[in-house]
Specification:
Four copies of one chain form a homotetramer.
Chain A lengths: L1 E6 L4 H10 L5 E6 L9 H4 L21 E4 L7 H9 L3 E4 L9 H8 L12 E3 L2 H10 L2 E3 L3 H15 L7 E8 L14 H4 L4 E2 L8 H9 L2 E8 L6 E8 L6 H7 L9 E3 L17 E9 L4 E8 L3 H15 L11
Parallel strand pairs in A: 1-2, 1-3, 3-4, 4-6, 5-6, 7-9, 11-12
Antiparallel strand pairs in A: 7-10, 8-9, 10-13, 12-13
């Protein structure tokens, strides 16, 4: 039985993680921390089947756990990560702080000097489909961002097969509102979000570009949009392959995912929609050949931003780290 | 041309009023005030076809207007109302402050002593279908609450015709989220409101009960619920009429609305739904005989909470006060 | 390992059942039938993690299963039920056909003579909280309707404790659109359902009244409404208890659910909302004393109409019938 | 007073047109036809403030009208158009049948030989911002498609100014469900549309590409998506301008819309969202410079698909054709 601690249990990722853990027969939640809700119970914050006391992070007993999940805001997670590692506890960090290998990239995209650059060398980017072996032995896993997960999984096979004729890629992504978190803002007020749709931080401004480029080696123009749904990301990706590349060859490249439990490629002629993935740990992919002669293709990728894009992937990483069956707690 | 001033233009009722006024060919907005947004333009706050400068209330020129609409929070409106009346300007107040004739009722339901009890005698409850003549001559019109409008219009004909065998009434109402206003709170956060539904302040606790009872003379058990839509109220009302009262007699009582432009009674066998009224100034009614023998009937009433339940009714009141055609600016 | 057959896998209840069964470690789906989709695979009809061949009902091998779930339309299920029972297979029927003990009630509410009245004596109404012992030994379990589950669970403790001063009850229920099924109709067309809200079949006309009255002995005025969400039912129930009945006594009556895994009573002062139950097999209850002197109370009850109101309850029944832990496959 | 006839009043475009016409003080609806609903009244089909008898198309009195709007399915409209023109009545056709100048394009994209090629020479593409003078004198106006309106208005100024360095354009569009019409299909069933999001007919397959290319001279890769809202289209458009083209120069090109009442360009740094346009006849544009050095820009364009994308534009065309103020009936 893996003994688990959770830092930051009352945000959407913390809560989703707890919901998943309750179905996981070989893991047990030892503590869950909260800031303003410390002293309350989880059921006071979220309507839920399960219940847990919420404690102050100071009271967390690291000696009693094998692994901690840090669901804290980026920029604030380093002290917790360090303390946990020093206590011999393995860490899965859901913030952005340990995802970029080069501290200069962190500085550039997040606007601050990195809070703990000495940890970067040992941190592993927690995308099991790309880095499973390294994750197995990692002490610190940096869980990928929501958008990057759906985009990197879509592009990786083409890069790996040397099929990208143009390293410039246009990624047009659409995400549910839960991606903006649970903090209050006019942006997430029902009256300003419901029955509308908008683009934000488009072009070269969204921080998640850094992860996409690090893991694919491509240059990405990225346009995120806000959907009036709670969960899910659909990315429409425009690529140029060598002129004449036919669809069979492209599909062959995706054979790399043949044995992956959480990546699905739909048959030719079908495209995934949000509900193919929402509520599951799947990333579902579709390939559309626009024009074989000129090598233009469109990829469509969907995932649940809180599951494969956050807490489900974190749990998948835990399963890998502790040698458990990778799908444990994630079959739904 | 009626010259109009608006206090509090950046809440949902203020904005809805401005949208309606732009289609009204005999009214002209002279000023619109805002607090935190003073100095900006309306287009900076709301996406809209029209645009207006937003000024501080202190800068409003009362000498330039014939009527002001006060779209301010209850408890804060009295000084503005007084200043306007003293300047010879007629007032339509959309807050709750002048709706209850008895200051003791205000004390009981709102928890404070009334801020200007001397004005209550001259204030007219602005439901044109009940008080049109008084509104015509009023200097101060207290625009009704959103829930009370839909409920009073449904019950009034039965009370007037002496058909209420039991003065206890159960009102089960469901309202869109715009009723909770534009202020930030977890209650109106997209993630906590979307795809859910809840009851709140049920039984004898919601303040709107006071208006319903004042205008109907009945005792009301009132259960408001929050719908995951932006606009609209549907009230399901359970009444007991004298045993044996048949449906034709009941429908006859609603003949009182025969010439009303904004109240519709659907034919027997049909019930109104939210979209019959949303976007219009209509209150649409349906009558369902549950059991003629025991006199049990259900009434269903719908309206747009921001139009007939607030700003549309305010404009209707303005039309009445200034002798204009009552439907001006409200035909859609 | 319980071997399971499913008749009617491509409606919403069939699909929800399959999603739940894939997490159930002691059950295994042996066959799933469909009518128009026979020959396809489940993944062609529904986006999903799992996949199954869909066969014609004629090809179902009853010798290979221990239990079948019938997710067929009411009025059509009898031949399948009979054939299964004759083959020695236990049956959980999700249609309405075996819920009413008296065939005259079936005739009255469903408008047809009962298709297999000889089976009614042995059928057990599958609400485990009321009939667990009988379910344990039943060969044919009639799974309750969605509305009745939420209403009967709310009223049962008061009836059992003799606390109903008035046997007339008003039930104002609101249900998500999935309750209307997956067949095409203008009523479930996005443009006619989205952003609206309506009452239907109110008063004494909805067939589910029959179950409510059979199980509680009360007379029910029932007003169902259609919410613009996919899943969930919230019922607001108005009752009269003996004058002076205080809240502590009422709460004591609900102690009957103390050890029930799937019924929750919220603490005084709190009311359940839809999302407390959606996605789970819970029925969550709240009690609001309107006026102790006159004995007026309001009950609020929520459930997921496809889980506790249909497929989750069916699985709970299976667990009871086969002596398994009752929560198996239902902990989320 | 312009006398108006409407063919096909009970689809979403017909109904939206009627709602707009009721606010238009210089137009009067003389007849409205329907197929299956002929003999009923409009209020039986749609909840609405207005009411009209619905007649069979055969009974329409063309002698009594100045103009007809044809809201019929493409491929079926030609006989009605011909009969109207022969009766001396001007025609605004909302179908796709007269939008493409070259009958070979019609054959290619719609799969049939054109039903009335002899009318194409005199038909005018009804986008007033591009073809106002021709519309003024036209007898037959082909009202543009919903997607093309938002896309052509966004691209036209760049084409006109000679600023397109690459004639290949990627258009990623997202539309509300009303674009799929009111006919029943699983695609528009609430349970399959709500809380999801999907791409369809992407690449080079959607018929609206033909209009976009005819009016801009560009080659378009077009990816439409289905949003879970009722109304509105947002298009995200990726273009390449000459290297080094700075934003001021680009904005200058959009000066062509300076006096247009229904096209708005937002200030630099702001992007339009769906609700900027829904409920209005506006097309609102935003320009985002991704990288001036390489000339990469993103355009964002929003409109209400049923208003500027259909019925509002049709009414704007009528105003132009009859020399009325162009904004009449469209100010909201």
């Amino acid at each position: 039985m893996i003994r688990v601690g959770i830092y930051g249990a009352t945000g959407y990722t913390g809560f989703e993680l707890i919901k998943l853990l309750q179905r996981h027969h070989q893991a047990q939640i030892v503590f869950a921390t909260a800031r303003s809700a410390a002293g309350k119970r989880l059921g006071d914050v979220f309507p839920t089947m399960i219940d847990l006391p919420l404690i102050d992070a100071e009271e967390a007993n690291l000696a009693a756990v094998d692994v901690v999940f840090c669901c804290l805001p980026h920029g604030t997670t380093a002290p917790t990560v360090q303390r946990s590692l020093e206590a011999g506890v393995r860490v899965i960090d859901l913030s952005a702080d340990f995802r970029l290998r080069d501290p200069a990239d962190y500085q550039r995209w997040y606007g601050n000097t990195h809070p703990a650059p000495e940890l970067l060398a040992s941190a592993v980017y927690g995308l099991p489909e790309l880095h499973r072996e390294a994750i197995r032995h990692a002490r610190l896993v940096a869980n990928p961002g929501c958008y990057p997960t759906s985009v990197i999984l879509a592009l990786h096979p083409l890069v790996r097969a040397g099929l990208m004729a143009d390293t410039n890629v246009i990624v047009d992504s659409k995400s549910g509102v839960s991606g903006a978190g649970r903090s209050l803002s006019l942006k997430t007020h029902f009256g300003e979000t419901h029955e509308t749709f908008s683009a934000y931080n488009i072009g070269r401004s969204h921080r998640h570009i850094a992860e996409m480029e690090q893991e694919t080696g491509l240059q990405v123009i990225f346009s995120p949009h806000l959907l009036p749904v709670f969960k899910g990301i659909l990315s429409t990706i425009y690529v140029r392959l060598p002129a004449g590349t036919d669809a069979a060859l492209v599909r062959e490249a995706y054979g790399v995912y043949r044995d992956e439990p959480f990546v699905r490629l739909l048959p030719g002629g079908r495209l995934p929609e949000l509900r193919h993935a929402v509520g599951t740990n799947l990333c579902v992919l579709g390939i559309h050949p626009v024009d074989v002669d000129s090598g233009r293709y469109i990829l469509v990728s969907v995932e649940d931003n809180l599951i494969k894009g956050a807490s489900g992937q974190a749990l998948q990483n835990m399963n890998v780290m502790f040698g458990l069956e990778e799908t444990l707690g994630l079959m739904s």
